[in-house]
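queue> pop job 88
queue> type: inverse folding (structure -> sequence)
queue> payload:
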């Protein structure tokens, strides 16, 4: 694969292989530091939206492995505005060794990949968030082990970009995936069609429902994300009225498996989609999950640079 644009572009074996590489690089990182696998390589990072985790974890992933990263802000590049995406892609292909892009419109990251001669990584679009999905899978595997087939992953909230990647990685790894969302906030149909096809091959069971209580029954993982994603800010007031029954709070968590872990990609809107009590409680893995972005992304970059 030249690029990393969607979990569904990779086979189950390739996803498992990436997780193995991530586990190995994480161990190496804490033991004596990472080998300089990316020496002489620079990652260009195009951001059309703000970021804490994605920006810093990619930057640090490059530095830990002997490479470098270059942050390109929305105002600097003007992707598709100051210059066409195709031209940006072809120019940057001569300067850096790979690109990571966070965009509003998924078509824009696809366009970037189409025209670049170097690998392109999707750092979140309106459609999906595959790097997040890999870090989520890494966190789940660390908690439940590699023989986690049949695990119940339940997502409660908006059927957004993060839900798409979690659904796809769950299906690829043979985990059962349930989403409970309010009417009108479903996962986009094309992502569901893809997930159903993957699930048929791996035996994963998918459920699309509206009752959060039903969703968390027997759940080993409860996952939530913001009710209003970046780019949807004008809908905030409307969404704040619809989503409260989907809040992940202590009562909801008590209805799941006793060893359930609670996940959130962050940034969290505390006491909206996730209460403080749960975010900082014994079931929460939100910070190890955030830290795993670093290790999962090292694996993705290592594969794309063909050094692992
Ligand atoms: N989870 C995540 O992608 O966080 P940032 O928006 O801070 O990068
Ligand atoms: N769904 C959120 C994820 C942020 C990491 C958004 O797109 O804003």
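queue> result:
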């Amino acid at each position: 694969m030249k690029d990393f644009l969607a979990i569904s572009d990779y086979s189950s074996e390739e996803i498992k292989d990436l997780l193995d590489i991530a586990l190995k690089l994480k161990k190496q990182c804490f033991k004596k530091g990472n080998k300089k696998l990316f020496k002489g390589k620079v990652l260009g990072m195009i951001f059309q939206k703000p970021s804490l985790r994605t920006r810093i974890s990619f930057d640090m992933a490059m530095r830990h492995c002997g490479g470098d990263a270059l942050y390109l802000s929305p105002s600097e590049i003007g992707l598709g505005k100051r210059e066409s995406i195709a031209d940006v892609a072809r120019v940057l292909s001569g300067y850096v060794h790979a690109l990571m892009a966070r965009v509003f419109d998924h078509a824009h990251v696809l366009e970037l990949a189409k025209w670049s001669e170097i690998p392109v990584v999707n750092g979140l679009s309106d459609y999906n968030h595959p790097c997040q999905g890999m870090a989520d899978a890494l966190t789940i595997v660390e908690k439940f082990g590699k023989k986690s087939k049949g695990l119940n992953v339940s997502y409660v909230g908006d059927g957004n970009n993060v839900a798409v990647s979690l659904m796809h990685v769950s299906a690829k790894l043979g985990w059962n995936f349930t989403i409970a969302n309010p009417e009108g906030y479903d996962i986009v149909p094309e992502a569901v069609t893809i997930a159903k096809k993957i699930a048929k091959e791996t035996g994963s069971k998918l459920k699309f429902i509206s009752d959060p209580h039903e969703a968390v029954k027997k759940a080993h993982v409860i996952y939530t994300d913001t009710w209003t994603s970046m780019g949807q800010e004008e809908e905030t007031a409307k969404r704040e009225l619809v989503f409260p029954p989907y809040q992940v709070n202590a009562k909801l968590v008590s209805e799941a498996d006793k060893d359930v872990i609670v996940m959130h990609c962050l940034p969290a809107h505390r006491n909206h989609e996730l209460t403080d009590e749960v975010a900082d409680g014994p079931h929460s893995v939100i910070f190890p999950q955030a830290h795993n972005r670093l290790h999962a992304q090292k694996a993705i970059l290592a594969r794309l640079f063909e050094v692992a």
